[in-house]
């Protein structure tokens, strides 16, 4: 399986070329209730125990091949994400330098991390090499953290995570962003209001990231008891943040799902070896709508529809409907 995928459409960053430094099976220190990759298969919190991890050579080989097929000027960012927690890869510091060299420093390099290893000085030193770090913070208190992220046994507690994100902000030269998934559940728990929201606002004001991303698990997947927040609910939460930040004299920018949207621009491909294979590679890492696939692969809507029908007939993919009625395609 290639360690490079996409480019995937991202509401936050636009056309995002993915680097997967974990690759399946999903390996993570969390088992989040909303994870679109399903439940965590390999539970790990120590990079030294990571067996058969992706090496710098693997990424170099795959990225060189990819850059021969797509126009690098039609990518907005390169994002380290994929099949688990990227900071578990012991080579991540070298890999980011390799990606910077191959893209000639033209494209910002983004890391999506669950923040669970940032308490370690050695990991923060590697992470500080990225242009943008998006640190997950779904909770400001231990109870909410345990319900949403379901950390594995050796993962740090929420206080250590909050402190480590604050430390990283002081140490890095790039931009620090946080991402919070706001959600509801069938068992009367939510982080959209009450104490969980107040604790989150306090934590984020202490960190004062450059950008606070207000997100929700809008794609189907994750646990059945989960319900995403609506865009109106996210706007209400954003207003609470704005008022609180003004009171506390904090100046983080807010990006709100459904309001800020950088999707919708096509990637320019120089050539296609196999459109079906490219669609399959994309969907293995990111469930997508038809329009997302058309933009990512750089082909027309009608051509995409034809390929999707073909893949459905062969039972290689399935369709699921999101809470707002949109059709997403998943690999079987
Ligand atoms: S941290 Fe990311 S990969 Fe790990 S379980 Fe949560 S959402 Fe999934």
Plain-language structure description:
- With 332 residues, the chain is α/β, with parallel strands linked by helices.
- It folds into 2 domains: 4-256, TIM Barrel; 275-331, Arc Repressor Mutant, subunit A, CATH 1.10.10.
- It contains 10 helices and 14 strands.
- The protein has helices at residues 56-69, 92-102, 121-127, 142-148, 158-171, 194-207, 231-248, 275-285, 290-297, 301-313; strands at 4-10, 14-20, 27-28, 42-43, 77-81, 109-113, 132-136, 175-181, 183-185, 211-215, 226-228, 253-256, 317-321, 327-331.
- The chain has an 8-stranded mixed sheet. A two-stranded parallel sheet has the order 3-4.
- A hairpin with a 5-residue loop joins strand 13 and strand 14.
- Helix 9 (290-297) crosses helix 10 (301-313).
- The model has no long low-confidence stretch (mean pLDDT 94).
- The chain binds iron/sulfur cluster (SF4).
Walk across the major sheet and give the strand order: 1-2-5-6-7-8-10-12
The CATH homologous superfamily name of the largest domain equals: Aldolase class I
The ordered string of helix (H) and strand (E) elements is EEEEHEHEHEHHEEHEEHEHHHEE
Ions, cofactors and other bound molecules = iron/sulfur cluster
Largest sheet: 8 strands, mixed
- What overall geometry do the principal axes of the alpha carbons give? globular
- Count the helices. How many? 10
Low-confidence stretches: none
Mean model confidence by pLDDT: 94
Kindly, what is the distance between the CA atoms of the first and last residues, rounded to a whole number of angstroms? 16 Å
**Count of DSSP strands:** 14
Helix content: 25-40%
Just name the CATH architecture of the largest domain: Alpha-Beta Barrel
Structural class: alpha/beta
CATH class of the largest domain: Alpha Beta
Number of domains: 2
Please report which band the strand proportion falls in: under 5%, 5-15%, 15-25%, 25-35%, 35-45% or over 45%.
15-25%
Whole-angstrom Rg: 19 Å
- CATH topology description of the largest domain: TIM Barrel
């Amino acid at each position: 399986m290639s360690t490079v995928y996409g480019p995937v459409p991202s509401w936050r960053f636009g056309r995002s070329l993915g680097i997967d430094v974990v690759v399946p099976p999903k390996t993570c220190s969390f088992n989040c209730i909303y994870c679109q990759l399903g439940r965590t298969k390999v539970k790990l919190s120590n990079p030294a125990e990571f067996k058969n991890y992706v090496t710098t050579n693997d990424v170099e080989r795959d990225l060189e091949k990819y850059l021969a097929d797509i126009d690098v000027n039609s990518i907005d960012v390169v994002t380290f994400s994929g099949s688990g927690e990227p900071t578990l890869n012991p080579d991540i510091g070298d890999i980011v330098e390799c990606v910077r060299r191959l893209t000639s420093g033209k494209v910002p390099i983004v890391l999506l991390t669950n923040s669970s290893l940032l308490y370690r000085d050695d990991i923060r030193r590697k992470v500080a090499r990225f242009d943008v770090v998006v640190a997950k913070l779904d909770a400001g208190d231990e109870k909410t953290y345990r319900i949403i992220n379901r950390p594995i046994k050796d993962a740090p507690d929420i206080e250590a995570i909050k402190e480590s994100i604050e430390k990283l902000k002081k140490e890095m030269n790039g931009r620090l962003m946080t991402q919070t998934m706001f959600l509801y559940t069938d068992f009367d728990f939510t982080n959209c209001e009450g104490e969980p929201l107040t604790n989150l606002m306090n934590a984020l004001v202490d960190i004062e990231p450059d950008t606070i991303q207000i997100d929700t698990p809008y794609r189907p997947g994750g646990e059945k008891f989960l319900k995403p927040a609506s865009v109106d609910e996210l706007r209400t939460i954003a207003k609470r943040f704005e008022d609180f930040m003004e009171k506390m004299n904090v100046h983080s920018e807010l990006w709100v799902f459904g309001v800020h949207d950088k999707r919708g621009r096509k990637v320019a491909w120089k050539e296609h070896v196999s459109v079906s294979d490219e669609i399959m590679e994309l969907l293995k890492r990111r469930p997508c709508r038809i329009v997302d696939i058309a933009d990512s692969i750089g082909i027309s809507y009608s051509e995409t529809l034809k390929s999707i029908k073909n893949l459905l007939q062969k039972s290689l993919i399935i369709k699921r409907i999101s809470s707002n009625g949109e059709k997403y395609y998943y690999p079987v």
